[in-house]
Amino acid sequence: MKRWLPMPLHTLLLLLVWLLLNGFSAGHFVLGGFLAWLIPLLTAPYSDHQNRAGKPLVVIRYVLRLLLDIVLSNIDVARRVLKSNRSLQPGFVAFPLALQGDFPLTVLASTISLTPGTVSVDFSEDKQWLYIHALHITDEQALINDIKQHYEKPLQEIFSC
Amino acid sequence: MESVVHIIAAVLLLTGGFFVFVGSVGLLKLPDFFTRLHAPTKATTMGIGAILLASMVLTTMRDGRLSIHELVISLFLFITAPVSAHMLAKAALHRRVKLLDHSKNAQLAPKAAEQKTPE
């Protein structure tokens, strides 16, 4: 079982996305099913163990919060883009990480990049710091606390780390 | 019913168009590379998101069944946009692109380029 179907969850997800993109029909079910079986089989040797996400309720709350934040900060960034350049105060921030593990950190970094006004640039080698570039910094500490409260805490809860 | 759907789609298209436009304006007028990086990543999240929602509303009405392609497309965008932004930022750090003069914490840039800790 493990040998012929190494990543059952990925297989299911691939099949689902294939069917969503190509429409539900018997032919696509067979083709998608074949690909969803073959691709994990080929890629499984390259994947390493990642933290499992738990607590679906917290995940849903996190995604909703993220969508809301994307909308709100988009409006904010649009306003700043349209105003004069001179009122901008861009800069870098070093964010001290409490979260650990490659996959949770990737999710956190992507979240920060997706919310307008901040782009994650890179991690420090020891994965203790995340460098962020912000379009406009009024209060560095407030920005860090914001990210900690809104994103890092729930991610710690989701991945229990 | 049909006109209500059309109004919703029109509002979504206008919102999306506005945000994509602001993203392009930002790319043109912001002062340095890193600030410019912010504009297009934003256009994809909100602007394209709204345009795709409009497409979803219209196709759902036309075909009489829920159209989900658009959701999958936005999911792919949401996954890939941060990666490209990260690669662009990393490349800029290594090439030591000039920062805006009054950037805050400019001393962090070379440290981030070498993945050192801030102290």
Concise synopsis of the structure shown:
The complex is a heterodimer of chains A (161) and B (119). Chain A has helices spanning 8-22, 26-43, 56-82, 102-114, 140-159; strands at residues 91-96, 118-123, 129-134.
What report would you give on this structure?
The complex is a heterodimer of chains A (161) and B (119). Chain A is mainly alpha-helical and 161 residues long. Chain A has helices spanning 8-22, 26-43, 56-82, 102-114, 140-159, and strands at 91-96, 118-123, 129-134. A three-stranded antiparallel sheet of chain A has the order 1-3-2. In chain A, strand 2 (118-123) and strand 3 form a beta hairpin. In chain A, helix 1 runs antiparallel to helix 2 (26-43), helix 3 (56-82) packs antiparallel against helix 5 and helix 4 (102-114) crosses helix 5 (140-159). Chain A starts with 7 loop residues before the first helix and ends with a helix. The model of chain A has no long low-confidence stretch (mean pLDDT 83). Chain B contains four helices and no strands. The longest helix of chain B has 31 residues, at 33-63. The mean pLDDT of chain B is 83. Chain B is an all-alpha fold and 119 residues long. The A-B interface holds A 17, 20-21, 70-71, 74, 77-78, 81-82, 85, 88-94, 109-114, 116-117, 119-126, 128-129, 131, 133, 135, 137, 140 and B 18-19, 22-23, 25-26, 29-32, 34-35, 37-39, 41-42, 45-46, 49, 68-69, 71-72, 78-79, 81-83, 85-86, 89-90, 93, 100, 102-106, 108-109, 111-113, 115-118.
Salient structural properties:
heterodimer; A: 161 residues; mainly alpha; 2 domains; B: 119 residues; elongated
In the predicted model, the low-confidence regions of chain A spanning at least 5 consecutive residues are: none
Element-level helix/strand string of chain B: HHHH
Given the C-alpha coordinates, what overall shape of chain B results? Answer: elongated
Largest sheet of chain A: 3 strands, antiparallel
- Shape estimate of chain A: globular
Rounded to an integer in angstroms, the radius of gyration calculated over CA atoms of chain A is 20 Å
Oligomer: heterodimer
Strand content of chain B is under 5%
Beta content of chain A: 5-15%
Sheet with the most strands of chain B?
A: none
> Helical stretch count of chain A?
5
